[in-house]
Amino acid sequence: MSAETPAALAESWRAHLAEGRRRSLHTVRAYVTTAERLMAWMEETEGRAPSRAALGKLTTSDLRAYLASRRVEGIGNSSAARELSALRGFLRFVGGEGSTIPAMRGPRVKPGVPRPISPDEAIALAQDISESARDAWIGARDWAVLLLLYGAGLRISEALGLTGEVLPLGETIRVLGKRGKTRIVPLLPQVREAIEGYLALCPHSASKSEPLFRGARGGPLSPALIRRAVQGARGRLGLHERTTPHALRHSFATHLLGRGADLRSLQELLGHASLSSTQIYTQVDAAHLLDVYRNAHPRAGT
Asked: Which residue among the candidates 31, 66, 198, 281 is catalytic per the annotation?
């Protein structure tokens, strides 16, 4: 099979995503299908199978025309945005280093329902990141930060904004949230033990005025480091692309709601100024129940 045929290009793209980028099976399938759909559209409109060179000559107008054809088929803004993102990656892969990708702004997408991850996935994510750290104290630090996000529902900025003033740790912790609003959050024993374990290994002192979580050189820990660590772990574990540090906070909220927490209490724990911000988690819980139904009910597919 020639390396220039659409089938060969799609297979190379599949191998790159699965082996080089370690993307999940779902992502690989979706991205490859999008690439195949683009090449089929090019063959239909141009009358011949597209080559690597032809893909490299695609313009912004071409991409707009392709997405317009998909709109006719009924896809919405979210699907169009996902397809455009996948196509940019495919064209960058086909074009190689230094290739120019057609500039095109994606459609505006309304914020969707948060995608929580399961308790097992949350712990597996934190363990993977901790075990992949170059030093034991950094692994303990990352473990503690991620447990704070999942076990206490903190935003990453709130967790990294903690200082030595919270010590010694008790059953609750005072958190400074958005717009300078403080709230009291319960601290699970497992989360408290994780923070204390980190402090026992950390080579930097925990003074009241200094950040609780430190970078390798002793400065404040950057949220970008935690985001990159999560991105690497989700690839290794095959988790969804929307598995981010903030997804751990979504999981905290969703799991509490599923176990009977009322919205007002959840609003206080999350530090939401408005109850409407908290109500989105009722949609998450309903979506979860539908997934359970579809996967388990004997007549769900009829």
From this structure: 281
- Is the pLDDT assigned to residue 98 strictly greater than 70? no
Summary count for the chain: helices (H), strands (E)? 13, 2
The pLDDT of residue 80: 78
Give just the sign of the alpha carbon dihedral 151, 157, 158, 162: positive
Say which residues have a Cβ less than 8 Å from residue 199's Cβ, sequence separation at least 6: 167, 206
Q: Which residues contact 81 (CB under 8 A, 6 or more apart)?
A: 106, 107, 109
Whether 272 is a known active-site residue: answer yes
Distance CA 167, CA 160 (A): 15
Among candidate residues 141, 155, 214, 250, the one labeled active-site is 155
Catalytic residue status for 178: yes
- CA 92/CA 84 separation, integer angstroms: 12
- Active-site residue, selected from the candidate residues 141, 214, 234, 249: 249
Q: What is the pTM of this model?
A: 0.53
Choose the final residue of a domain: 95, 129, 150.
Answer: 95
Cβ count near 207 (within 10 Å): 11
Choose, from 178, 181, 264, 297, the residue flagged as catalytic: 178
Q: Print the domain residue range for 21.
A: 6-95
Alpha-carbon gap, residue 293 to 288, rounded angstroms: 9
For all residues of the chain together, what is the average pLDDT? 79
- Annotated catalytic residue 155: yes
DSSP 261: -
181 counts as catalytic: no
CA 125, CA 234: separation in Å to the nearest integer? Answer: 7
The residue whose two tokens read 């950040």 is 211
Residues 40 and 177 in one domain: no
225 CB burial (10 A radius; 0-12, 13-18, 19+): middle
Same domain, 165 and 284: yes
Q: Decide if 109 is inside a domain.
A: no
